[in-house]
Write a structure and sequence with these properties.
Two copies of one chain form a homodimer. The first copy, chain A, is of the alpha/beta class. Chain A folds into two domains: 13-43 and 288-397, Aspartate Aminotransferase, domain 1 (Alpha-Beta Complex), CATH 3.90.1150.10; 44-283, Aspartate Aminotransferase, domain 2. Chain A has helices at 7-10, 16-24, 44-57, 59-63, 72-86, 101-112, 127-134, 152-161, 184-197, 252-266, 271-283, 286-312, 338-347, 378-397; strands at residues 30-31, 93-98, 118-123, 139-146, 149-150, 165-170, 200-204, 229-234, 246-251, 318-319, 327-331, 350-351, 353-354, 368-372. In chain A, strands 2-9-8-7-6-3-4-5 form an eight-stranded mixed beta sheet, with helices on both faces. Chain A has a four-stranded antiparallel beta sheet with strand order 10-11-14-13. Chain A has a two-stranded parallel sheet with strand order 1-12. The longest helix of chain A is centred in the last third of the chain and has 27 residues, at 286-312. Chains A and B meet through α1, α3, α4, α6 and α7 of A and α1, α3, α4, α6 and α7 of B.
């Protein structure tokens, strides 16, 4: 039988990363293409203990239906925590617990975006979000990145030319895939311009806690006295992505619509996981845990930098500075074709993600690829970088 | 600030059940309005044991990112299990694990329904699904119910008049809210008519395992040699709703689109829960567990029938026969206004859901209300039914 699909999904393709994942699942390949937390970063023992107690003493709490808005104590604790640590949240704001931060992007877009409206986004940007915007028939308008965040002139220009711009999607900290962090000055300018042009801001902050050097910069949402920023947070990078617990902080009216949409989408987020996140935040030393994560990843990041210096720099590969997160963004030497290089890397049995996968228009020229350093072991990282160097050699010989 | 919401969500309201839940949360009220499994129906000890072992021996499996399609062993086991027990699934079908069955309705609608297309559905029907269809700007066309399922003439008439009918939404077993089960003959006719008119069938089967009397009837999907039925199943009523694990079985092409949409919606379903469901199905005697559930609910159902016979029948309340599920569907005596009665019941501190909440057009006349018998304790059920009788008396005196 031939099926007639809704127009909104006809052009949707599985993301390029997913295709590369098929190779990455083969143990003969070294995957530098994922975005998974390091296995040693999971607080497994503490979680096992909390879970055992929960299922022994209050199984019905963990297993019964719950409310769409989320587990009350988690919502209350997060509200206070985000206010204290990031100055996020005002009286006009509320909080919604979601099934991972990805659901924040989806519910916000469903609530706000009319088909044909424009989403302004950083170019490159996180492919999972871009594909979701596309599934609501958004027009995507990419704003190029400088080393300190979006190019502000280009942003203002886009605000002027994109008459149906509805919101800006930004990952201000250690952006995926570029690793770039938006400076404090640019955050202020972005906020002021969004306000001036009547455009909302969707601020996605999955990596904010994973800063390895440099000074803390408050989120754009911390500036929000006007109710124009929706902030997305997640436990995926700091407790567990398998649990799928994220949250949205934003104006009550917007969250009300998102809550009704969520009711139709999955009723509520897995309640065992919500209770686990709440208890982990409140019963374990959460700050010490975050500090430990930063230690693990700082070590991995330094190893990657050393390896790139040793094997890739001599071959003309460069990379943008990155103060945190899970990714390095590398540029090929002039004249090397990205698609051909990605293919050669696969032949050398190492998986990277070509930068084109993160562009609003995949046919635009791109010289960059993304390396993840959180998932591979130290030995895999070393072997992977060697193979990447070899792939370059091989390519140039051709 | 005033927000401009997408047209698709402007008219969306939280479901009437949600509003009633606010009262139901007050311990002074007896709630007969929920749809929660009985607390004693949760296999808490077995789950605690499986979870402890999982988090001790394979924490990374439970905590790391997983694939959008779902946990491989669960998909493989369910595929075999559904084929064996229900003759569900052919070579052209595939399986997708979802965050509760509710997500099946959402992903299917997003993939298939163009704005303005018609969804044919039983009238009354499950409000959560109806609201989700509405969020894609579906036109809902209700088909009235007979005691053995949808009225077939009305269904055929709707197929003829609704030129943009895209799919039929049906809950053939112990339907929510009516408790009605579609006969084998009607399932065959529904399938044949859907095929004839080129309309897909979305078959939602949350209560199929909860039959307390009468003979098993195979799902509509068991007839599907043409790839026109999408089957939605769930662990919510047989293991735990808090876990949010459901599944879809349907034609590969449709599931591919749904998978891409799911990737944008929540990446994947909570993997701890998926592993738990798999291990519970394969390491515990699942058939014995289902048998035990049926014992628990048969007892509750009989108690409700006795109580209704004793307190409500003398006042002229009638109910449709129901062979399974969690709900009774009661009709008020002629001349009693449903809205006024629901209000009086609230004043008597007992919560029911008025039948209007389940109609495609809430302004249509309705004399019925829904009673849930799975959630209250025996004592609460008795007191609740007494209060419902009192509310009727009170109303008639007015």
């Amino acid at each position: 039988m031939e099926y007639k699909f809704a127009e909104r999904v006809v052009g949707l393709k599985p993301s390029a990363i997913r295709e590369i994942f098929k190779y990455a699942a083969d143990p003969a390949y070294i995957s530098l293409s994922a975005g998974n937390p390091a296995p040693e970063a999971f607080p497994s023992e503490a979680l096992a203990e909390i879970s055992a107690k929960l299922l022994r003493d209050e199984p019905i709490l963990a297993l019964q239906y719950s409310t769409t808005e989320g587990y009350g104590p988690l919502r209350a604790h997060l509200t206070e925590y985000l206010k204290k640590t990031h100055n996020v949240g005002r009286d006009f704001d509320d909080i919604l617990i979601t099934s991972g931060a990805q659901q924040v992007m989806d519910l916000f877009t469903k609530s706000i975006l009319e088909e044909g409206d424009t989403v302004l986004c950083e170019a490159p940007s996180f492919i999972g979000s871009l594909n979701d915007f596309r599934s609501y028939k958004a027009k995507l308008a990419g704003v190029p990145m400088d080393p300190d965040g979006m190019n502000i002139e280009a942003f203002e220009n886009a605000l002027k030319t994109e008459k149906k711009a509805k919101f800006l999607y930004t990952i201000p900290n250690f952006q995926n895939p570029s690793g770039i962090t938006m400076s404090r000055e640019k955050r202020e300018k972005v906020y002021a311009l969004a306000k001036q042009y009547g455009v909302l801001v969707l601020e996605d902050n999955p990596y904010g806690d994973l800063r390895y050097k440099g000074d803390y910069i408050p989120p754009i949402k911390s500036l929000d006295e006007d109710g124009i920023v929706l902030y997305a947070g997640t436990f995926s990078k700091v407790i567990s992505p398998g649990m799928r617990v994220g949250y949205a902080v934003g104006p009550k009216e917007i969250l009300q619509k998102m809550t009704v949409c969520k009711q139709g989408q999955d009723v509520h987020t897995n309640i065992w996981s919500q209770v686990m996140c709440y208890r982990f935040m409140t019963e374990v030393d959460f700050d010490a845990h975050l500090e430990n994560l930063r230690k693990i990843y700082t070590k991995k990041q330094r190893l990657l930098l050393d390896l790139m210096e040793q094997y890739l720099a001599p071959k003309g590969v460069t990379w943008d500075p990155f103060d945190g997160g899970l990714f390095a963004w590398c540029h090929l030497p002039a004249g090397v074709d990205l698609a051909a290089y990605t293919q050669r890397a696969l032949e050398q049995k190492v998986c990277i993600v070509p930068g084109t996968a993160f562009l609003t228009d995949e046919s635009e020229p791109c010289d960059a690829f993304r390396i993840n350093f959180s998932t591979p072991t130290d030995a895999q990282l070393e072997e992977g970088i060697k193979r990447l160097a070899r792939a370059l050699l091989f390519l140039k010989e051709k």
